[in-house]
Every structure is written in C-alpha cells, then in structure tokens.
Design brief:
With 225 residues, this protein is α/β, with parallel strands linked by helices. It is built from six helices and twelve strands. Helices cover 26% and strands 35% of the residues.
Length: 225
C-alpha cells in the first residue's frame, strides 16, 4: 500500500485525515514538523500533507527544506491549512507545493488530486541519480500567462530523466516545454519535451524549476545504461 505522510500539530485534524485516507493509503503522521524530513527519508511517501501554522517549524519553512534535499525534493506536497487560500496559495506554490486545500477539507477533491498525482508518478524515475553538471539549454514554450517565449539557460544538475535550471519567466506547474541542447558549434540539438514538476525558491531574480522529460532523444547528455 502506498504511504502518505501527514504533518500537523493539531491532533484532531491528524486523526480526521488518517481516518478519511487510511482505506487507500498507509498513513504516517506526526505532530512535530521537525520530524518530517526524517520520516520522509525513512518511509518514502508518495505525497506529504502538511499544515502551515505549526509550532517550532512552519509549513513554509518545512516545504522549503524538503524541496532543497535531493531525496525529498520530488515528493509531492499538498498544503492542508486553515489559512486563506487566496492569501497563501501562490506563495506555497513558489516554495514547491503542488496544491492547496483550505480547511474544512473537500475530501473528494483531495482524494481525486492524490490519485491523479499517483497515476502521474513513475517510481523508476524518482530513483534516478542527479549529477551536478552545467549544460547550456534553449527552452521554448508558453509561460504562465500563455505567452510564447524562448530562452537560453544553464542547468544546475541533470539526471537521465530531467534537470534543474533557472528561468526568467514564470512557469506553471506541469507546463510542457521543448528542450534543446546547445552545442559548441552554435547548433541546437532537440533533446525532447519536458514538464515542470517543481519550482524552487532562489535567492536570485530568476526562479529555479525542476523538469522531467516526457519524451527524450539521444541528444540528451545522460542516457540509461
């Protein structure tokens, strides 16, 4: 059975979430947000549900911390909070959260969203090793406002199945872009199409995005053995 990690310092809320979700998932839960990273590493959940306002460590801080660790950076995070969605959702998405559920929780939507994400996951891809490597890329597609753009960038790390890079335009979750590898002779080689799977806060004017290939050619820098 797939595992879910619930992080909420409200005992009653944790019990409710566990009761409503345990028919389909093995639920790991904690009221101490400082334990969340350790539990995520130990149990490898398919998703993490967390509150925002907690003692010792806020959901904002925890979300950022999980996204900065390689082994937890690709675990989908869903915010379940009493805080106003209109006030907090966009900031949570910038920190890497996949979706936002304001309390009282719409459990039908939550169950559907979890199932959708589970169907999108490919376990073998989550196990691929990342390598710190600077690769010059040309990205082409639509930005978060639906406007066509084209941009040159460099990767921060790469894997067989994706890469992390900065982008000056705002991209929506699951946006699909064309990816070209720029060679030394000035020729761009089509590497495939990739979707945005996460967004990482960066201390720069540009945002960092994690991409996962949907299709890939032999021009990508890493290939499976």
């Amino acid at each position: 059975m797939h595992k879910l990690l619930i992080v909420d310092d409200d005992d009653a809320m944790r019990r409710m979430l566990k009761t409503r979700l345990s028919a389909n998932y093995e639920v790991i839960e904690t009221g101490q947000p400082a334990q969340a990273v350790e539990l995520a590493l130990a149990h490898k959940p398919v998703a993490i549900l967390m509150d925002l306002i907690m003692t010792d460590l806020s959901g904002f801080e925890l979300c950022r911390g999980l996204r900065e660790l390689s082994y937890t950076s690709r675990i989908p995070i869903f915010i379940v909070s009493g805080e106003s969605e209109g006030r907090c959702k966009e900031h949570c998405e910038r920190l890497g959260a996949l979706d936002y559920f304001q309390k009282p929780v719409d459990f039908n939507r939550l169950q559907a969203r979890l199932m959708e994400e589970l169907q999108n996951q490919r376990p073998e891809r989550r196990r691929s090793t990342r390598v710190a490597m600077k690769v010059s890329l040309r990205l082409r597609g639509l930005d978060g406002s639906g406007h066509r753009f084209e941009e040159l960038t460099n990767t921060e790390n790469v894997s067989v199945d994706g890469f992390l890079c900065q982008c000056s335009v705002r991209l929506a979750q699951n946006s699909i872009l064309e990816v070209f590898v720029c060679s030394g002779d000035g020729k761009d080689n089509y590497a495939g199409s990739a979707r945005v799977v996460r967004r990482v806060d960066a201390d720069t004017p540009w945002q960092k995005y994690g991409f996962e290939f949907l299709s890939k050619t032999a021009h990508w820098v890493l290939q499976p053995n």
